[in-house]
Amino acid sequence: MTKKIAPSMMCADYRTLPALLDTFAETGIEYLHIDIMDGVFVKNFTLGTDYCKRLRSMTDIPLDIHMMVTEPETKIGWFEPKEGEYVSIHYEATNHLQRALAEIKKYGAKPMVALNPATPLCVMDYILDDIDAVLLMTVNPGFAGQKIVPKMFDKVRDCRKYLDERGYSHVEIEVDGNVNFPNTVKLAAAGADIYVAGTSSVFMGEDITGNIAKMRRIFNGEDLGE
Ligand code: DX5
Ligand code: ZN
Questions:
Q1: CA angle, 134 as apex, 110 and 22 as ends, to 5°?
Q2: What domains, with CATH codes, occur in the chain?
Q3: How many Cα atoms are found within 13 Å in the side-chain-facing hemisphere of 118?
Q4: Does the beta carbon of 72 lie inside 6 Å of ligand 1?
Q5: How confident is the model over 121-160, as pLDDT tens digits?
Q6: Cβ(196) to ligand 1 under 6 A?
Q7: Per residue, what are the HEC states of 149-162?
Q8: Pairwise CA distance, residues 47 & 56, whole Å
Q9: This prediction's pTM
Q10: From the CA of 104, how far away is ligand 1's center (Å)?
Q11: Among the options 13, 35, 38, 64, which is catalytic?
């Protein structure tokens, strides 16, 4: 599977948004990762429904909406998910995971299940037919700028194997949290497909185009990520 980059829009400087979106279009960015936090599931607030609406009016790049909210099944519709977009909901946030994933599909969007670092892969045993991707949190969700949980490299490798062995090789693995250049090298070797790029990579320093190019070189094995 082609490896993809999803810049984390909570890390973007909104004063330069139009130019930034042009850069993303020119560099072939595949998704825009939108962090939704409700102050309950995680201790923070970030982006919301209006932001998603505005962003869609400014770009054709599909959104990748990461719902870090309790009872997501009651809130999916608020975002009016579109065809081609990803919407992820946390296993830990709902008693009705299957129903919530099915709800995302009803809108024509692609359902993704998100797992916190401590959550085992086996919770996906009976929802594999309901997902297009799994989001493995590589930090505990809530804040940008954290350090990766080291055990997550094994988890990504185990997850690829888990999916392949069950005949779900088409299910993509997204990684989110401290996806810096050296960690990207290891996550790529472990089999991650979609890379949420925040303060650790794409938004580090001034050279966003250069940072994106470096990520792609790492994907191609042409850069050691140093
Ligand atoms: C949380 C966020 C963060 C962040 C990623 O769900 O998605 O993980 O923006 O960027 P880093 O960790 O590089 O600041
Ligand atoms: Zn996220």
A1: 60
A2: 4-219 (3.20.20.70)
A3: 3
A4: no
A5: 999 999 999 999 999 999 999 988 899 999 999 999 999 9
A6: yes
A7: CCCHHHHHHHHHHH
A8: 14
A9: 0.97
A10: 23
A11: 35
